[in-house]
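User: I've been going back and forth on whether these two constructs are worth ordering. Before I decide, could you fold them both?

Assistant: Sure. I'll take them in the order you sent them. The first construct and its structure tokens:
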Amino acid sequence: MPELPEVETTCKGVSRILNSKTVTGGIIHERRLRYEVETNLPDKLLGKTLYEIKRRGKYIIMFFDGGSLIIHLGMSGSLRVLSTNTEKRKHDHIELFFGNLILRFHDPRRFGSFTWTDHSPYEHKLLKSLGAEPLEKCFDGAYLYQKTRNRRGHIKSLIMNAKIVVGVGNIYANESLFEAGIHPHRQANRISLKRYSRLAQKIKDVLWESILSGGTTLRDFYDKDGNPGYFKTKLKVYGKEGQPCSACDRPIKHIVTGQRATYYCSHCQR
């Protein structure tokens, strides 16, 4: 699944090319995505100018005059900006035309979504209850500490809860907890403020490093130019069961947390 760094990379890439351009047409090839796409979406967008693209969690918000388009890439979705003579591929479900350019949404599993709103996107039901942005100043150790006083669940599950903090997917949760030296199954309300401050900073560091290197290489993720991300080569625990820990040489262990693969070092993470 495209994670926060992949979504951020997509936002920046698409914005750089399409910002200030006007929609000249559109085609919905397949409406049956996670939420059914409005039949008249191309009509609503026709003649509207795109003036800004932002990310909220794993959602992409395209701001037009008169409304906003909220996009989620789902499990396997991608957005690509192409010339109008580029041949359509199987699973290219939505096309928006900007003069001689096309924004194409490709999604083999059809878990993504394209949702139009005439109102503030931040008040839409898809975004309204989302938690803190991990890359913003408000997300820090004090925030995590306050949010966990009455929570007895595992810390890994908590930092993957989008109502607490958005965009910390499975890969980044594993890596951040390793960097912070916290066991993924440690009870959330039994972690000190000092350790939460370190964890919050490590989450920021891991995400920023991934953004700067283009995102994590996943089977279904490619950047806007069709190139895979490169962060996977820098992962320290994720997917490395049985391999020596980079800090202590003991073997990395694998368990399952909430049906998600969890990797950690039993010596370095307490």
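The second construct, handled the same way:
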Amino acid sequence: MVDVWLPYGKTDVCVRVPARNLLGTIEPKERQGAVDAKAEVERALKEPIGSKRLSEIAKPESKVAIVVDDATRKVPSEVLLLPVLAELNAAGVKDENVTVIFGCGTHRAVKPEEATALVGAEALKRVKAISHDCRAADLVHVGTTKTHGNKVYVNRVFAEADVKVLLGDVGFHYYAGYGGGRKSVLPAVSGEETIKHNHAMLLHANARTGILEDNPVHRDMTEAARLAKVDFIINVVENKKGEIVKAFAGDLEQAFMEAVKLVDEMYRITVDRRADILVVSAGGHPADMNLYQAYKALDNALDAVKRGGVIILVAECPEGHGNQVFYDWMTRLGDLKNVEHEVKRNFVMGGHKAYYLLKALQNHQIILVSSLPDYYATSIFKLKTARAVNDALAEALKIVGSASRVWAMPQGSYTLPIFKAPEETNT
């Protein structure tokens, strides 16, 4: 027997896999955080990629809009914002000519206490801060995307700024391929119809985690950000502890693509065979706070398990399902065809999780090890359940056979295994 420890909430559980069955563990290539995060951001600002320095782009009289993430994302915006303000001040820009826009997309406005937590008290004393409202009456039309005919409406303050700056982080994203870069325009400061038009394309075969090539969601987002005339971005890549590993500043696309390379280097792992059974942990707290968050780990695991195989998701879920839209769509729509129709007709954030879960269930059996009541797990979310991870493994071996090969993935939310047959790996 081989003992593999898997994070579960704020503790760990041990799965015991017979040595003859275990293919191994799939883990990210972890990198140390920068010794001084602020210094790393300042370095990136001094060495922009494919662009002049921000202090050369801005003029003393420039009105500047800086987009930062809202409270739904854990981005170190404060560490990014203060060096950006220093760079603008060096160009002669006064603080009163700078507006920070919380890129809320379709989410609610940022509360005052959240604003302080996101960007810090010092920045809020110095510059104006507003929350984007995707349903505002005074959105500005900046053009229509050529490839997908999306009418791009954006926040007025953003549209009318002389200098437009985006702050964020780059990591894997379900249907945009990667977060960061252009996502700070669409969806962050775009109109509701623009966002819905874009997100409905998540049904496309290439709208997937870690895919940018021929990904219509990504292409449309990039075109929208170009139409909005973004001047400068600063994005960071973090390790799973949330520490900044490296910062990337400069051109909207070039700086973003350099960040993508680092994400791949750290978190994209090639596997040369698919397992019959894959045991995946979301990575413990906070990644497994609820099923909505923990599902990311399951989605990431799909390429490393055979069609018809079993995935065991180990996620405590102390806060239950975690998203009302996810719950409602699973309850009300119930099957993949209905969900696909609803995505095209009236996309709502949260509904995409119902789509992905039902799609995964078409080709795999999924056993959930969690504190979620069985009624919810089985009746609403259509998952099998087990009280303990070793019970789940015993059940999986019954389903697919005692000789089944097993991968274990302890950091599922932070790892993207990509299957490549051995002959592909050697070319």
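Notes on the second construct follow. The first strand starts at residue 2 and ends at 8. The chain has a mean pLDDT of 95.
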